[in-house]
Design goal:
Layout lengths: L1 H28 L11 E6 L3 E7 L38 E4 L6 E6 L3 E7 L3 E4 L9 E4 L1
Antiparallel strand pairs: 1-2, 1-3, 3-6, 4-5, 4-7
Length: 141
Amino acid sequence: MRAVLAAGGVLAAGVVGSLATAVPAQAAMSDICGGRFGNEFCLYYNSYQKGGAAGATSDVANWDNFGGTGYPLNFADWGLGTAGVGQHVKNNAASYANSAWSKTGASYYNSNFSGAYDLAAPQTKGQLVNTYNENASFRWR
């Protein structure tokens, strides 16, 4: 009986131990895209994912006509600094984050997905290079 209880205790400790290690891994991934999970491509006003932020879950042919509304998408305060909050996303982004698990995001220089572009692999953050402050559209690949 003691052997069964001891084995059960070891098994329970193993389960609790694996749950304890899963939490830090999940917490680390919550850092992608300002704590948002799922398929979101985020742009930031400043380098290194600072300042105003904005995100999209679907393709955006023109940041100044977000979702076909005729209105621009503006950077919001996600608690990462207030620089750029209220500014248009179009032609004002310096860095990105991609919270998607399997989709690569592409930030384009021109509207309608043309011109130079930067690619954002799944679950990554980085600096825009080819579209730094010249980002006009976004598409999932």
